[in-house]
């Protein structure tokens, strides 16, 4: 479809959605979900709201601590040579939606400035509405937003394609890389291009992680060879570099606030923890190994993008940060005390009961991190474990990235539209 014709059609769709009228065509699912969030959150569709720009010093401070700084050369090499600098800009934002880097021709940068698309600006979805940076952060998926798919009307002459970048060590969302430009620059292949470059950047982070593990292994291996009993060397994220006296797991969940001293570690029990260059040495106390069975789990889904499971037992407590997929799975299990089969979980996650292989693989990963807490056949929380589920105060903010049918139903409730002004209906 011609870009201008498509823009006119989308403006009609948006106007009908805001008025509660019958839509000429349905918006794409990810756009419809974002518009729901904007209405529930009170974002004004025709008012360009902006937050305070970070100062130069604040921006530089964020740049220095961001892992995205390490992969800027990869992003530049993958995008800038093919970027028409007179028409597009490349933007890199952190996990809060703050724009930290921006490159492009001065003429297009000036046009971006008029939109508030400047270094230090906050482009979180809840601030500026549906957009390639903020919506990608919420959904944890690549997103292209064209013309009137932007919720705020002042952005309708713009198009953008953003892809999230994750830390391969722990799955943490680091930020978004985005290519944006005026309406006429839209091309359907842009999103695939930006996504491919984001994956290359994650691969570079993975290579650097493997190199750091090898350095830790070089330090730890001679030390472990001289130690009696069982011990393991891990990096700060719990990835195993070397072990003695036990079969090493790929990764060991470390409690929050982990540090030197006597610490109870899931899967290992009580350990004497000592610092190593680039990691930790965990010496397992044999008399205490395996103690501390779990009795209670608190599943906290109250804060978007920061989900956790905290496990309590006789030996203490520890917390595990959850990936978006694992947060979805644990929510479904918390809502189903009797448990669910792989086919039932697949239907609730994907709307397709045949995708059992994917479900079993994900459940295997989450059970490795929550040993003794989860059971299977069917999948469920262990019978003797008390489960507490903490939901967001606003139901529409429950796992906002998720398109799983069960989660969408939980967000919408019986009326199909939680938090929306009366008359505002998006299918």
In short:
The chain is an alpha+beta fold and 427 residues long.
Question: What would you note in describing this structure?
Answer:
There is one protein chain. The protein has 427 residues and is α+β, with helices and mostly antiparallel strands. Helix content is 34%, strand content 21%. The protein has twelve helices and 16 strands. The strands form four sheets. A five-stranded antiparallel beta sheet has the order 2-1-5-4-3, with helices on both faces. The protein has a five-stranded antiparallel beta sheet with strand order 7-6-10-9-8, with helices on one face. A four-stranded mixed beta sheet has the order 13-12-11-16, with helices on one face. Helix 4 (72-79) runs antiparallel to helix 8 and helix 10 (342-350) crosses helix 11. It starts with a helix and ends in a 15-residue tail after the last helix.
Describe the secondary-structure layout:
Blueprint: H1 3-19, H2 29-41, H3 56-65, H4 72-79, E1 89-94, E2 99-104, H5 106-114, H6 125-128, H7 134-139, E3 143-146, E4 158-166, E5 173-182, H8 190-225, E6 231-234, E7 240-244, E8 261-265, E9 269-276, E10 279-284, E11 294-300, E12 308-313, E13 316-321, H9 324-334, H10 342-350, H11 356-369, E14 374-375, E15 380-381, E16 386-390, H12 405-412
Parallel strand pairs: 11-16
Antiparallel strand pairs: 1-2, 1-5, 3-4, 4-5, 6-7, 6-10, 8-9, 9-10, 11-12, 12-13, 14-15
């Amino acid at each position: 479809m011609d870009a201008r014709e498509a823009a006119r059609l989308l403006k009609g769709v948006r106007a009908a959605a805001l008025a509660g009228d019958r839509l000429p065509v349905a918006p794409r699912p990810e756009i419809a979900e974002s518009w729901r969030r904007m209405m529930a959150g009170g974002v004004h569709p025709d008012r360009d709201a902006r937050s305070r720009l970070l100062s130069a010093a604040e921006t530089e401070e964020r740049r220095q601590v961001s892992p995205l700084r390490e992969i800027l050369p990869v992003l530049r090499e993958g995008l800038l040579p093919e970027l028409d600098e007179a028409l597009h800009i490349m933007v890199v934002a952190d996990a809060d939606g703050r724009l930290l880097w921006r490159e492009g021709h001065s003429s297009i940068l000036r046009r971006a400035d008029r939109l508030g698309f400047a270094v230090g600006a906050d482009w979180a979805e809840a601030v500026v509405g549906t957009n390639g940076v903020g919506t990608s952060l919420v959904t944890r998926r690549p997103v292209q937003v064209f013309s009137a798919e932007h919720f705020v009307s002042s952005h309708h002459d713009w198009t953008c394609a953003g892809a999230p970048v994750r830390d391969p060590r722990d799955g943490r969302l680091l930020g978004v890389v985005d290519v944006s430009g005026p309406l006429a620059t839209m091309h359907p292949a842009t999103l695939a291009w930006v996504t491919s470059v984001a994956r290359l950047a994650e691969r570079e982070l993975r290579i650097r992680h493997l190199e750091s593990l090898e350095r830790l292994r070089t330090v730890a291996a001679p030390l472990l060879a001289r130690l009696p009993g069982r011990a393991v060397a891990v990096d700060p994220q719990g990835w195993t570099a070397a072990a003695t006296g036990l079969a090493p797991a790929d990764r060991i969940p470390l409690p929050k606030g982990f540090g030197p001293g006597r610490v109870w570690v899931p899967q290992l029990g009580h350990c004497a923890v000592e610092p190593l260059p680039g990691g930790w040495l965990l010496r397992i106390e044999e008399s205490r190994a395996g103690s501390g069975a779990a009795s209670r789990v608190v599943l906290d889904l109250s804060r978007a993008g920061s989900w956790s499971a905290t496990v309590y037992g006789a030996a203490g407590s520890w917390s595990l940060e959850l990936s978006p997929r694992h947060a979805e799975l644990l929510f479904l299990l918390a809502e189903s005390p009797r448990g669910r089969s792989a086919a039932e979980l697949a239907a609730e996650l994907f709307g397709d009961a045949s995708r059992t292989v994917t479900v079993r693989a994900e459940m295997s990963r989450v059970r490795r991190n929550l040993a003794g807490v989860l059971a299977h056949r069917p999948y469920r929380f262990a019978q003797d474990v008390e489960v507490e589920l903490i939901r967001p105060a606003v139901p529409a903010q429950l796992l906002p990235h998720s398109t799983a049918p069960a989660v969408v139903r939980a967000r919408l409730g019986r009326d199909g539209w939680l938090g929306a002004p009366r008359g505002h209906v998006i299918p």
